[in-house]
Amino acid sequence: MEAWARWCHRDKPVVPGPGPQDRLGRRRPSPAVEAPGAPSAPAPAEPPKEEGVFGATVVHGFVRTEEGEPVADAVLTLLSPGGEQLDRVATLADGSYILSARAGGSYLLAAVSRAHEPWTRHITVGGEPLVHDLTLSPSEAASPSRPA
């Protein structure tokens, strides 16, 4: 392998590097000068501590019908005050959902389902997870008098 490297670099001048390095280009300590385990560079400064986990939290709960049955086909969307979609999920079979949100703000929570009327509410999220259960009304288009 060394012969191949010398052949590939035969026309290039040899320039001495900053010091002994391992195969990945990291500096190796010089045993005559540095004690083993001594750091070769000063440790980086510790990053500033932030409140919460990156300023994020969650909105979670259950989507149910007026009779208390879970709605398994609902799609929930969390929107910023400017209309930016922050998260979107579908409910699970038990009607549960979980959305991620930036902590400390007002948002619009919207839910849609094939057999139910669209639902929207303004919510306020603090630093803690917000539990927000919602109830969907049956759609007029899917009522017994007007089949879907």
Structural notes for this entry:
The protein is mostly beta strands and 148 residues long. The protein has one helix spanning 2-8, and strands at residues 56-65, 75-79, 85-90, 96-102, 105-113, 116-125, 130-131, 134-136. The strands form 2 sheets. Strands 1, 4, 7 and 8 form a 4-stranded mixed beta sheet that branches. Strands 3-2-5-6 form a 4-stranded antiparallel beta sheet, with no helix packed on it.
Number of helices: 1
Roughly what percent helix? under 10%
Uncertain parts: 47-53
Q: Name the beta content range.
A: 35-45%
Main β-sheet: number of strands, strand sense, barrel status?
4 strands, mixed
How many β-strand runs? 8
**Shape designation:** elongated
Rg over C-alpha atoms, rounded to the nearest angstrom: 30 Å
- Class inferred from helices and paired strands: mainly beta
Average pLDDT rating: 76
From the N-terminal CA to the C-terminal CA, the straight-line distance is 74 Å
Element order: H for helix, E for strand:
HEEEEEEEE
Features:
four-stranded mixed sheet, 8 strands, four-stranded antiparallel sheet, about 150 residues, elongated, single chain, mainly beta, about 5% helix, 1 helix
